[in-house]
Amino acid sequence: MTTATGxxxxxxxxxTAHVVWAxxxxxxxxxxxxxxxxxxxxxxxxxxFFPSFDPFVGTLAAFSxxxxxxxxxxxxxxxxxxxxxxxxxxxxxxATMIAMGLGTFLIGCLxxxxxxxxxxxILLVILRxxxxxxxxxxxxxxxxxxxxxxxxxxxxxxxxVQVGFPVGVAASTGIFALMTKLPEADFLGWGWRVPxxxxxxxxxxxxxxxxxxxxxxxxxxIVERKEVLAQPALEVLRRDWRSFLLAIGITVSEVGLAYLLxxxxxxxxxxxxxxxxQVILDAVVYAAIVEFATLPLAGWLSDIFxxxxxxxxxxxxxxxxxxxxxxxxxxxEPALITLALVVTMTLTHALLFGPKAAFMPELFRTQxxxxxxxxxxxxxxxxxxGFSPLIAAALLAWAGSYWAVSVYIVALxxxxxxxxxxxxxxxxDSLRS
Length: 433
Hints:
The protein is mainly alpha-helical. Helices cover about 80% and strands about 0% of the residues. The protein has helices spanning about 10-45, 45-50, 55-85, 90-110, 115, 120-145, 155-160, 165-180, 185-190, 195, 200-210, 215-225, 230-240, 240-270, 275-305, 305-320, 325-330, 335-360, 370-385, 390-400, 405-420. The chain is globular. The two termini are about 25 Å apart. Its main location: membrane. Keywords: Cell membrane, Membrane, Transmembrane, Transmembrane helix, Transport. This is MHS family MFS transporter.
């Protein structure tokens, strides 16, 4: 048996396996780069880059610079998606890794406020913007690359790329947990820089692996038919606007939960509850480790039962667990806190994020798939992801209790449920061109 392009089935499986491995590895490195900033914002940036503020105000300021990366993501998504649909998926995946790697490494080299004054937070914001540009085209390019190689098992193979997120969470949180064992003076002096500086080694490995990727058969086909569009990003807004809006809607809950569970809970536990940093960081790591299994499981189930079934289940569980999550956190018991994060991450984020790698790109035709997935995912990330820790911290300060944050989670979840009900089921259809 041969594929449409004349490649043997065995060779096609080998190519798919290599593409999945390279995409997952690169995505894990990119998420590590992006997420260590969030942990640093929660633990150290308020002290080193905004020391003239009240500690809580300093935390808000640090989260504001954290959000800058998400403001940059739609810009990066539009630019990188445009060229990904014109020049190819592989070329832009290599470019995004370079942008992310350099931005992250240079953050680790930055002088602090005490050394250069106001220029420290200014440079921090600039480098965070560079990070956001890079990640804006990274995830969408990786999943498009995989599902355009994956045949009828797009949900499962796409979810393997998603494992890069918990790998990035576990690695970024774990290395910070290790660094916090240092004496406080050493941690604030040099320990916080280590997670940023070592990323350059990881990026080097990912860069070499991605150089060996093969371009997707779907992109080759539209090149051969001379159907590459001149302005794919504009075409998304002009002709594929309904898919674009649905992509935003199905994503806002998942991306908001991702950063509430991995970033805001660290702030809540350490500042509001006064718990040791190690307790909440360990809980986040354990929850991320469990997702190594639950994300592929969710992707596999979406191939069987459909993308919408998994998304609706994730949305309903997000509503149901919005309040119990904080009940368990408020117990201040390490075992209960870990259990709460593991269960919540599994039943909410995993059920949404696992099938997303297939669901999002499937909404768009080949000519605009990279641009559509990039714009949909990154506009949603800008709306709910980057601002979620900041909004949650402000709601906590306003209400004096977690209930306002829980209501915020419920509101995001309802948006995703409604968008899912309006979206077409794509699991059993061929990719559109």
